[in-house]
Each structure stands twice: as structure tokens, then as C-alpha cells.
Amino acid sequence: MPSSRKAQQQEPCDLGALIDNLHLSDDFLITSCKSGSGSVSLIYFKTLIDLTILKKHLLDGLINDAKSASLKEIQDTLPFVQSSIETDLKKIEKKLLKGYAGIIESRKSGEVLLVPMEEENLRSISVPEVEFSVIGPKQAFIEDLRTNIQLVRGRLPSRDLRITYVEVGSLTKTTTAVLYLDAIADKENVNTMLQRIRDIEFDHIEDSSYINQMIEDNTMSPFPQFIDTERPDRVSSALAEGKVAVFVDGSPTAITGPTTFIEFFSAFDDYFSSWHISSIFRMIRLMAVAFSIFATAIYVAVLTYHSALVPRDLLATLIQSRETVPFPPIVEALFLELAIELLREAGARLPTKVGQTIGIVGGIVIGTAAVEAGLTSNILVIIVALSALASFTTPIYRIGNTIRLLRFPFMLAAQLWGLIGVAAVFGFLLVHLLGLTSMGRPYLEPLYPPRLADFKDSVIRLPFNMQTTRPDLLRPGKKERFRKQKVKQKKDIDD
């Protein structure tokens, strides 16, 4: 039996061999059915099709058909617009595995009438969980590619919106959709995205994160080079600017690019508030990220090598808080940082209600117990807690993980060489960012190369009536968003 099974699992050379190969799986069924004066056979995977549609529409249509059992006549009778008669074995196999039912006259005929009957087990459109906003739309993508594209087309009802489908993954054969506005997006960006996706050589693609990692300019960099989002409004806004979006069937997140470093600190609900408030919040996020990276490292460097830089009043407080701590600053810093990371991972992996309780109670208990046991100082507990809190201000989840990672090399450099080590690691980090690109575009733009025209929506956000052009980084086909007109003050009716 095993030898015959292996022989049947070889590449089929005709329709009969293909059916025998698929029939090795217990969920593949072959049933006979009368159609008019003749009979046909149905082949399908019962775990992939909707049995209700099969019984009500397909079987009833075949039984009530008084004509001959010709596949063409059956196709004209059945109420399925997307049905087709195929002879290519690869197409037949692919559609059967996608939820189609096949109708054959005989195994030797080589023709199969394929009827779509895939069963849709989809969750409803829900509220964004990762990129939640208080103000603005409350829609998020789901795992169905067709629904996600529908959400984008609903926001961009433009004839210029182009969609190109690419199949990736030798085993999963996952459908990937590349979206762009033909009149606005730079053709070089579109071709680069399509080429990179088509060049992917991998057996299974389960999520857009797979595609994200495989098409990055520098796969060794810890910095994300594309923005992944679950919000249709963010995707439609990116397409309107001239970016390219990628959707993966089975994934609730989309990829947009090219992008810049500053964009990762721009929350989309910034556009739903006044430009003054949005600009302040963006600067707060940037300062919070800087504090999260440097605060603990500077604490270690100052207490290890540069205690003379500490004011006398503050130095007395530091000495008093550390008088019972038997470890050097680097040990207590690493202890607290690792404890915070453990609590964060435990809270993320546990159920929602339990995870929140563990995070709050665990943080309070561990912090209090560590100070009372003399394992760390209370000042460092405050610094580490604020650093962890500051890392959560990033609107994009992936850049938050990068910030968490960067703290550790800065702490180690501070222990080895003090503030000089912190400056050296910052120099290496800056050189890396200067050389980093996203789809060939500079990652630090508009900071470097400096482009004043793109500062209108970077660190600060200017009013909409001043954002008359699209970003130069994207090289859009239509640079002008709207015609700049002089705003004239109109008198009230009472004046």
C-alpha cells in the first residue's frame, strides 16, 4: 500500500491520474449524478465548498435539466457566472483546491466544468485594535482580500486605481494584490514593488509580514522600511499621496511604501485634530522615544564614570537610594529592563483581562519588592518605568519593538566607555539610518537629504490649505494636490 500511494502521488499526466491523486485525501469526493438523458460525475473537496450551495443550486440544476449531458449546455443552465470549462490540469487542480466543484463527463474526456462554491468563513469588519483612534473612522481590515480591496475602493472611487495580482508561495499559492493610483504613483516605485514580490522564492506565505520582510531594502536592519497598517483610511491616504500598497489574502494588515523614519511617529488621528495639537503630539512622541533610548544608558554612564556631572543635591539623593544596592548600575539596570520585557511579553501572550492584571500587579509587586530587597534603587525604577511607558507612544507597533531593542546596546556601551560610548553608538546608529533606504528612497528624508517642501507634514503638520503638493520623496506623476488660491476674507451679511 505505501508503495502504490507514493506512485500515485507523482505528478499526474492526465485527468484520471489527477483525480486519483486527489482522491488519496479522504475529504475529496467523487459522486455520480444524472443530468438529462445522461450522467456526469461531481468532484470536489467537501471541506472547501459550501454544501448548501451544492445541494440547492448545482444538484437541483443538474437533476431538473432535461437536455443532454454536454458540459457546455450544463454551463449555460447553471446560475454561476464565474463557471468555466478547463482542460489545463494545473488550472483544474488549483481551482479544486480553492473551493471549486468540478463536473466531468468521463475521465478520458479531459474537460472539467468548474463551478465556484468556496465556503466563506469570515469575521465581520471590526474596530481597529492596534491603531485605535478616539476620533475618526472605526473600520479595520479583515482576512479576506476581496473585502479589504472593497474597503479601499469605497474610499477611493477612482478609475485610476489599479490592482495587480501576484501569486506567491509554492505551497500556499497565496494571492497578493498590489494597489496604486496610475496617474499619481511613480512607475519606478510600482515596478520595484512588483518585481520584488514576483522574485520571492518561498514555500509558504501566511501573512503580509512575510512579504514585508522579504522585500525590504536591508533585511539585516532592525528598522522597519514599510508601514503595515490595519486601517483603510491610512491606506487610501497613502495611495492618494502616490505610494504603493500591498494586500495579502488571509492577512488583516496592508503594507505601504516607500516610507520614511518620521512617518512611524505620525498617528493617523493626527489629521482629525487641529494642526497645532497634532504637531505638539508628534514632537512629544519624538522626545518620548529619545528618552526611552537614552535615559537608562545615561543613568548607567553618569553613575559609573561621570558622577561629577551630577548636581550636589541630586547626588546626595542618588547615594542615599543606592546605599543598600550591592550591584553596579549596569546590573540593576539590566535586571529591571529584563523584568519589564518579561512583564510585557507575559501580558501580550495571556488573555486580555488576565494580561492587563498581570502587567499592573506584576509591575507594582516586582518594583516594590526589588527596592525593599535592596536589588535596585527607587530612582532607577522610576527611570525604567518611564522609559517603558515612553516606548508605547509610537503609533506603529513595529517601530516600538525596534526602540525596545536599541536600549540594550546603549546601556552596554555606557558601562564600557561612559558617555563617550553612548555618543559612539549613537554615531553608528546615525550612519546606519543615513544609509538606509525604503524602495531606494532615503529613509531620513526630509531631514536628510533636506527637503523643505516635505517638512509641511513631518515633525510638525501644517494646515491642509498649505499642503498643496505631494511629497517630493515619492516623485508623483501629479505633484499638485489642488490649485493654490488666495484666501480672501468675506464680510458678514451684517457688515
Count of beta strands: 12
Distance between the termini: 97 Å
- Helical residues, percent: 40-55%
The run of helices and strands is HHEEHHEHEEHEEHHEHEEHHHHHHHEE
Q: What is the number of helical segments per DSSP (H or I, 4+ residues)?
A: 16
In angstroms, what is the radius of gyration? 30 Å
Largest sheet: 5 strands, antiparallel
Mean pLDDT: 86
Structural shape: elongated
Order of strands, main sheet, comes to 1-2-4-5-3
Q: How many domains make up the coordinates?
A: 3
In percent terms, what proportion of residues is strand?
5-15%
**Structural class based on helices, strands and sheet pairing:** alpha+beta
Low-confidence parts lasting 5 or more residues at pLDDT below 50? 1-10
Explain what the structure shows.
- It holds the Pfam family GerA.
- Keywords: Membrane, Transmembrane, Transmembrane helix.
- The chain crosses the membrane at residues 286-305, 379-400, 412-434.
- This is Spore germination protein.
- InterPro entries: Spore_Ger, UPF0353/GerABKA_families.
- This protein is an alpha+beta fold.
- The protein folds into 3 domains: 2-116, no CATH class; 145-259, no CATH class; 272-442, no CATH class.
- 44% of the residues lie in helices and 12% in strands.
- The protein contains 16 helices and 12 strands.
- It has helices at residues 2-8, 15-22, 51-63, 71-77, 89-96, 145-155, 187-198, 208-214, 232-241, 275-304, 312-321, 329-349, 352-372, 378-391, 397-417, 419-435; strands at residues 28-35, 38-45, 84-86, 100-104, 112-116, 161-168, 174-181, 227-229, 244-248, 254-257, 437-438, 441-442.
- Strands 1-2-4-5-3 form a 5-stranded antiparallel beta sheet. Strands 6-7-9-10-8 form a 5-stranded antiparallel beta sheet, sandwiched between helices. Strands 11-12 form a two-stranded antiparallel sheet.
- α12 packs antiparallel against α15.
- The longest helix is centred in the middle third of the chain and has 30 residues, at 275-304.
- It is elongated, with a radius of gyration of 30 Å.
- The N and C termini lie far apart (97 Å).
